[in-house]
Design brief:
Length: about 475
């Protein structure tokens, strides 16, 4: 009885841990995003211009909070996300403006240096926080003086410098913009948790009623207009759409479409990654945004009916964090998440949080470089590929297919101990198999086929400790369901 009870407890703890980390299964997605959903034709055309082919982008959380790295005046933020430090430590707006924004001076920021790192990592687009929840804008805004030109000593337009460097080096450029939350404006939809308005604005009367539409008209919509007018923006990444009704969201969509019809919009303008099963994606949402951003750090369980993106980070935070609860992911974890995302047909957006001086921290540089090394050997299995065509995700790793359907890429993440790799569900004849990495280009792999199962004889050791890619050439295109 004791054993039964304690095993039940273990199962319950595991289930709630999964729930807490938001790991959603095929079944959850069947409710959340039914198979009948289809992007409208204009969205299809827009996504095909570059977004679907890009596959891998850099996400940058940079702002006044970066210099705090999770600690303010000796107090350490108790939570994971360093960009939340103002709210987590309840720093009043006036104090944050003076002591944090007023000190923001990343003199070592060099857009060219960042872009060279992103390119060497294999990234093909960049998305940077133009305004996070704290409300401080990294661009020259005329409708607010809470920006890098007026409220900080730095007085350089970071969005302009980075967008120019990206376009110069052939990367697409996008901005993150927190449209509903803005801790510098008591009317924004930021203070729904009890007591938060009082802690950020101690001088406001208890009875103060925020007017969300007034905030949107006064600041968020005009700033989107400024961004789309003054910069070459290929993608706009909205977030945390609390109180974003369809009518409110459409004001943003119409503004973006009017100023730049090619600009791609993510789903968090209107829906928070379908955060609960109670709020599935419905067809009427599909004229509001273009593609679907999954949850923070969520990898799709399989190919989904809508075009998806996984917003990941090199660490447990998005903004730079050096104090309190925080850890970096391993290179292996990041490569596996990149591969599982692209093998599900999704786009992988990997974040790093540059430090307050404007440099990218050495650990993030090291992880980016490791990914760049892996990509330079295996890029063919990531770009210009389609999702895994096999009937199921293989337990040894994942698979992708070339656009013409004639090359199957096997991502072997768990090396077979008996030297034999079995691939089930290949309905066409395979002609040959070889390692994709130039390091092992001359090694032969013997291949046999038993009906729709391939059997490959592999050496005792993996070629790549993280993911060895095997390129299987097929005699005819793999029929995709
Ligand atoms: O920009 C990054 C996050 O800051 C943002 N989305 C990514 C891309 C984000 N905003 N809100 N959330 C994610 C989810 C809400 C998290 C919260 Fe908390 C949990 C708010 C309060 C409890 C984490 C823990 C943040 C503060 C404490």
């Amino acid at each position: 009885m004791k054993i039964i009870l304690s095993s039940l407890l273990v199962v319950l703890i595991c289930a709630s841990a999964l729930h807490a980390r938001g790991i959603r299964t095929d079944k959850d997605f069947a409710t959340l995003m039914p198979d009948t959903l289809k992007h409208p034709p204009e969205t299809e055309a827009r996504l095909n211009k570059w977004f679907r082919g890009s596959k891998f982008g850099a996400f940058i959380h940079f702002g006044a909070y970066s210099q705090l790295a999770g600690k303010y005046k000796g107090r350490v933020s108790p939570k994971n996300y360093a960009e939340w430090v103002q709210m987590d430590l309840e720093i009043p707006y006036e104090e944050y403006r003076k002591e944090v924004v007023g000190q923001f001076n990343p003199t070592e920021f060099d857009a060219e240096e960042w872009v060279k790192l992103f390119k060497a990592t294999g990234m093909r687009h960049v998305v940077i926080t133009s305004k996070h929840h704290d409300g401080f804008a990294l661009f020259d805004s005329l409708c607010s003086d809470y920006d890098v030109m007026d409220a900080s000593p730095f007085k350089r337009d970071i969005i302009k410098e980075l967008s120019e460097a990206c376009h110069k080096h052939g990367l697409k450029f996008g901005v993150y913009y927190s449209q509903a939350k803005d801790w510098s404006d008591p009317d924004s939809s930021s203070f729904t948790r009890k007591g938060t308005l009082k802690s950020i604005y101690p001088e406001l009367p208890e009875t103060y009623k925020p007017d969300m539409d007034a905030y949107l008209e006064r600041k968020a919509l005009p700033q989107i207009e400024e961004l789309l007018t003054n910069y070459q923006i290929d993608l706009i990444w909205f977030d945390t759409p609390r109180e974003m009704t369809r009518a409110r969201a459409l004001r943003f969509t119409e503004t973006v479409r009017r100023l730049n019809p090619d600009c791609v919009i993510n789903s968090r303008l209107y829906t928070m990654a379908g955060a609960s099963k109670k709020h599935p994606i419905t067809p009427d949402m599909l004229d509001v945004f273009d593609y679907f951003s999954l949850g923070d750090k969520e990898v799709p369980p399989k190919k989904l009916p809508l075009t998806t993106e996984s917003p990941d980070s090199v660490s447990s935070s998005y903004g730079y964090k050096a104090h309190g609860e925080h850890h970096y992911h391993t290179l292996q974890e990041l490569i596996h998440r990149l591969v599982h995302t692209t093998c599900s047909g999704g786009s992988y957006l990997l974040n790093c949080g540059p430090m307050g001086n404007g440099k990218i921290d050495p650990k993030a540089v090291e992880l980016f470089s490791g990914i760049g090394d892996w990509i330079s050997d295996n890029h063919e299995s990531i770009y210009d590929t389609e999702a895994n065509p096999l009937p199921a995700k293989p337990q040894w790793g994942d698979a992708s297919l070339s656009k013409d359907g004639r090359t199957l890429y096997l991502h072997v993440m768990q090396w077979p101990t008996n030297g034999t790799l079995r691939v089930d569900g290949v309905p066409v004849k395979a002609a040959s198999a070889r390692f994709l990495s130039p390091k092992a280009a001359d090694q032969t792999i013997s291949l046999s086929q038993d009906g729709s199962s391939l059997v490959l004889d592999l050496p005792a050791q993996a070629i790549d400790a993280h993911d060895t890619v095997i390129k299987v050439v097929l005699e005819s295109p793999f029929p995709v369901q």
